[in-house]
Amino acid sequence: MLDPRRLRTELDVLKKGLARRGVDTSVLDRAAAVDERQRHAVAKRDELRSQINVLSKEVGEAFRSGDKATGERKRDESKTLGEQEKQAEAEAKEAGDELREILLRIPNIPADDAPEGITAEDNVVVRTVGFDERRYDAHQRVPHWDIGAELGILDLERGAKLSGSGFPMFRGAGAAMLRALCQLALDRNADAFEEIRPPTLVRTETMVSTGHLPKFEIEAYHVERDDLWSIPTAEVPLTGQARDEILDADALPIRLMAYSPCFRREAGAAGRDTRGLLRVHEFDKVEIYAFCTPEQAGDVHAELLARAEGSLQALGLPYRVLDLAAGDLGDASRRTFDLEVYAPGADMWLEVSSISWCGDYQARRANVRYRTADGTAMVHTLNGSALATPRVWAALVETYRQPDGSVRIPDALAPYMRGVEVIGPPPPR
RNA sequence: GGAGCGGUGGCAGAGUCUGGUCGAUUGCACCGGUCUUGAAAACCGGAGGCCCGCAAGGGCCCGGGGGUUCGAAUCCCUCCCGCUCCGCCA
To answer: Which of A378, A304, A366 lies closest to A335, judged by CA?
Structure first.
């Protein structure tokens, strides 16, 4: 959420920023008008309340001192003012609610150094690591859905039988590899990040705090009976757990990580790049996350990126780093680097991590502050996947497929797989 | 799921029956000072959050929302959360 004060102090700046996303900036004019209306109503209400407070005190004094006539007169006077106050209050509340409704749907202002452009085509490739097109042989040009079926480690049919398409079921070494990947990611970051295992069903307010509601309601699974939402990422509970808190500045940056399942309806993406594990409704992920001061945020952002890259490097997967164009940024983010691994079988770059600096956008929604020398200020929040399983799994089996059809397990991962070094064909079932 | 009790400032804990002088007593923690070679102790002082405003100042906040009243931490309704006991259960 944007700071409503900026609507009156730097409306132009906000408009320029939103325009870079390719968004209609007239909402800002609407918001500014409602803000103006709200402040007028509040001022009027406060003035009336001030008078009522004085009168009420006098009523009490008058009755106590036995001056019944004065007491009754002032009481009636106060009552009249009370009716006006009620009306002003109603206006203030109505305008306040409307302003919040508008603000909750306005995305964050992109950082100045976020690349220009409004589509994914405009994203800038910052660097490509470990990629050499010529290095791949025919045996690596097999898509993971075929490899998975062949080796009996991915059972999409049965996953669909259970829950529908987009709900993969893994078996045997394939299932173990998912756990191994998460364990690896957690272990690699445990030196600096506190591990959290949050709930994965959360309240509406929690989803609002990160920006996933109200605007993207269609993207989330909702449990109606209990009015709870399945989290699309651990970023949601990690942000929400600090809601309404004032953090100790000395404790910042606070680095957290969390393993969690993630649920996404992918409503807007039906039929697009959905084969195999390319786009699924449920998957496991290890998220790395930080609360920090605005001054620390740049460094922390770089740190999260380096951490996420580190896991891919450890697994020996070629990847590239994208600096997202202003228009391709998620709503909450002001600057995002995407990590994409190369999947030779599918011959695609797969997004496996989005490392986002959200500024105070989420902090304001969740009301997470820290103490400063002269008061409080909103923290900055940053998040990114340390490792998202299904796409990394896909890239792994494609990259490490050997001429005989088996899949070699990278050295870094083997210890987490009971020493398994190669996944061969399954025993007959 | 049933019954009972409770939610007050960073924490603990009064105040609620008997509405006004209660944004709120007290203790701990915290910050500054005195004393001390230094520290502790003791003593003195300071200190909640939010909104509007250049400021002066005003308004709001005792879990959330609504109501009664001239006036609500205090009375009423409702929702949420916590604890205890019972039931059920991985």
So the answer is: A304
